[in-house]
Specification:
This protein has 115 residues and is mainly α. It is 50% helix and 7% strand. The protein has a two-stranded parallel sheet.
């Protein structure tokens, strides 16, 4: 519902929505179950699967960081900070580069001075 409302507002403003599927977390950061008795990582994966399907139905551009990380064979131990959730300085640079290069490949950056 939240994503649908955000998309509605973006489209109402004649904007272009792009959905970013967030990076995975380490198993060491995934030790405690959440309120539904499922781990954070499992919930993140379930959410990501649903978000991908929803984005396909809405015909949105998706930047799928887990897939990009696999394709580029990134060392995840260097990607995360010590807590296994947040990004290291290298992880932040890689994240930014993945997002930027993915956006450049889309029509999101088309400049229209009339809008």
């Amino acid at each position: 519902e939240n994503l649908a409302e955000i998309l509605r507002q973006v489209r109402a403003a004649q904007g272009e929505a792009v959905l970013i599927i967030n990076h995975p977390i380490t198993t060491r950061a995934d030790q405690h179950p959440q309120g539904n008795n499922i781990s954070v990582g499992e919930n993140l994966e379930l959410y990501s699967q649903e978000a991908r399907a929803w984005a396909r139905n809405e015909n949105l551009t998706v930047i799928d960081l887990p897939e990009l990380l696999k394709q580029e064979v990134v060392s995840m131990e260097e990607f995360w900070s010590d807590d296994g959730v947040h990004l290291s300085p290298l992880g932040n640079r890689l994240y930014a580069n993945f997002v930027f290069s993915s956006l450049v490949k889309t029509n999101v950056f088309q400049f229209n001075p009339e809008k």
